[in-house]
Amino acid sequence: MGGKGQPNMAEDLNWAVGGEAGDGIDSTGKIFAQALSRAGRHVFTSKDFASRIRGGYTAYKIRTSVDRVQSVVDRLDILVALTQRTIDENLDELHEGSAIIYDGERSWEADIPDEMTAVDVPLKSLAEDAGGAIMRNIVALGAACEITGFDVEYLDEALEKRFGGKGSKIVENNKEAARLGQEYVQENYDLDHLGYNVETTDNDYVLLNGNEAIGMGALAAGCRFYAGYPITPATSIMEYLTGRIEDYGGHVVQAEDELSAINMALGAARGGARSMTATSGAGIDLMTETFGLVAQSETPLVIADVQRSGPSTGMPTKQEQGDLNMALYGGHGEVPRFVVAPTSITECFWKTVEAFNLAEKYQTPVFLVSDLAMSVTEQTFPPEAFDMDEVEIDRGKLVDEDEIDEWLDAQGRFRTHAVTDDGVSPRAVPGTTEGAHMSTGLEHDELGRRTEDEDERVQQVDKRNRKVETAKAEEEWDYREFGDEDADNLIISWGSNEGALVEALDYLEDEGIDVRVISVPYIFPRPDLSEEIEAADKTVVVECNATGQFADVIEHDVLTRVKRINKYTGVRFKADELADEINDKFTEEVPA
């Protein structure tokens, strides 16, 4: 079903550059993605990189179209191959109309299938003519512009943005390198038979990835303190905030480890700042120790977990959705928490804002669960997708001097853990008149003093749990829906699989399969899907892990078995590939 047939190349083009880590693959891909977005084209990127600074296969793929694109597909039209392995790794995605750009002057002999078009360009030599061999990738971009009919002037704009800070000479050298690549292909090849003609538009798009959207959402939400320890793939959240949060009076601290990071963030939150930390992999395990203190002390804190393949060190640069059980159940004792999982890059922004509001409104830790695929994927959006005028800040029961009297006991002491009907106690930041208080990870009474009194223990546990019940009643724990709402076939997904599923609907429609897709951004609390599943003939849960962690949760909720599509290769779902698997699930015979 998926296939690799050629669509209208003016509308849909798939490009990639591949080589070894250290070859500048990432910067090359970003430059081309920026050029395409500046030309008013939609862009969706995907990365494959090794967990090392040098060596190991790495690739940057771009799908671009005049229409919105939300997934990679199993097809490559233009491949810039800096190594033979790049060709070998992508053979399954190449097709008869594919063009492969390579440097025949290098020591390796490119083994390119006869049905594909080999475009031998002396990348290094032309780069040296422009001022330095380091620009060979820019030469390749110029060659790609000529093959695809893409105006190289858009590439000029991206080069100015990329290298403008290094001086005009560097910018001009790179522009010259691109021109040399374009002219070489123009003079030595006739590629009209390929039919590529990349159309441009006047549309204005924002290009950003999921981690950038989380960072932007944090700033919009009023986050003024971030502490973190570098770890793939969460680090770029810290990199985004550094140099920006200071403009709003905030601070970023690079801690010595994950334990320090979450404790610093906890301290800032106790001081009244909207605070956040982010991590991945084994880092979330380490943070779990402090997670209980965050909940017991009723401190509002946002913890972003950008998932990667595990367990242990696992595959640090590969995709997975394997931390769901940790987010739902991690920590000793019974810990109330919220778990929010953005389903798209725009949702990374909006759910981050919501996470900060939930944390403060209910004085509860919030897990913001993303994953590697969404963190590094760059996608285009209209600017209005991030309308700052729509951002609302809710600081909950943060009291000041005018409100604090009703929360004092007979001796005038502030009841920071007061037992309330909704489970949410008042909160006073340090310096609030008459708001002095203590709080501890030990069980405590209303004043925060440690206690082992049985009645007070029960009151405090019930109060903390009551916050979740209040939130269930007050907030919209809804889902996003796509496809045919009356279809008998139901697909349920969470997190970053949404885009691939939405595009898979087109493939399924061509096969005459009507599908209803429910994409769930709230893992706890979560929407009750009992009616939706009961109305469906077949239900399939799609996720990137081996055991079906969300499927288990759904089955527990509705007491009904569901079918499962699980991918745990370390690579995200592709739309056409996913359509094939869904088709198999919905058409397979039920055993007698």
Automatic annotation (TrEMBL):
Pfam families: POR, POR_N. GO terms for biological process: organic acid metabolic process; response to oxidative stress; sulfur compound biosynthetic process. Residues 21-181 form the Pyruvate/ketoisovalerate oxidoreductase catalytic domain. Keywords: Oxidoreductase. Residues 421-440 are annotated as: Disordered. It catalyses: 2 oxidized [2Fe-2S]-[ferredoxin] + 2-oxoglutarate + CoA = succinyl-CoA + 2 reduced [2Fe-2S]-[ferredoxin] + CO2 + H(+). Its EC number is 1.2.7.3. Residues 217-461 form the Pyruvate flavodoxin/ferredoxin oxidoreductase pyrimidine binding domain. GO terms for molecular function: 2-oxoglutarate synthase activity. It comes from the Archaea. InterPro entries: 2-oxoacid/accept_OxRdtase_asu (IPR022367), Pyruvate:ferred/Flavod_OxRd (IPR050722), Pyrv/ketoisovalerate_OxRed_cat (IPR019752), Pyrv_Fd/Flavodoxin_OxRdtase_N (IPR002880), Pyrv_flavodox_OxRed_cen (IPR002869), THDP-binding (IPR029061), Transketo_C/PFOR_II (IPR009014). NCBIfam families: OAFO_sf. Heterotetramer of the KorA, KorB, KorC and KorD subunits. This is 2-oxoglutarate synthase subunit KorA.
